[in-house]
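== Protein entry: sequence and backbone fold ==
=== Local backbone shapes as whole numbers ===
==== Amino acids and backbone structure tokens ====
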Amino acid sequence: MAGRQVISKQRVAEHGEVYTHAREVKAMLDLVVQETERIDARFLEPACGTGNFLVEILARKLAMVKARYKKSQLEYERYAVIAIGSLYGIDILADNVTACRQRLLDIFSQHYSKLYKTDCRQSLLDAVRYILSRNIAHGDALTLKTLGEARHCRPIVFSEWSAVNGSMIKRRDFIYAHLVDTSSHREMPLFSDLDELAYIPEPVHEYPLTHYLEVGNAG
């Protein structure tokens, strides 16, 4: 599926679904290469499909984590969690959401196991799986609502994951509609730190500090 641009004519007709080819993905991301290689730079793909853009961004981020921190498994794990937590996606089709989460988890697992082999921790993979369940949303980026069996559900909520005190992670949940509430801020990064005169959304929930290996359990 990763190499195909069209799954079916029906999906194109009903949803306008055409995947971006890998060469175009790479060329477009090369235009912002400094951001794609910044471990904590946040990216949101509002029609993520199966994750072609997000997979390439994650690969670049993990390459930077490896280059800087591979000598210490603890440091690598900390920053790899920040890298995965910086990626967000929305898609209207449930199978795309499932595939996107799995592709991101697979590429994370491949990078991690290649470096540390039998020393890999299942708790880290569980944490990554949970973060992806929060960050890749089944919803409509136009209505800003989730989708599911009810079809018209709740506002999309995204979690911000921030490193605090080394191994601890701070999670804050925000309603996506509030992050794009005013047109003057639609070009700003997700969870941007704006100046004091700007509109700054309030989190709908804040969680206690959690060790990065316990993020999945805390959720």
Q: What stands out?
A: The two ends are 31 Å apart (CA to CA). The CA atoms of residues 130 and 200 lie 27 Å apart. Residues 94-116 form the longest helix (23 residues).
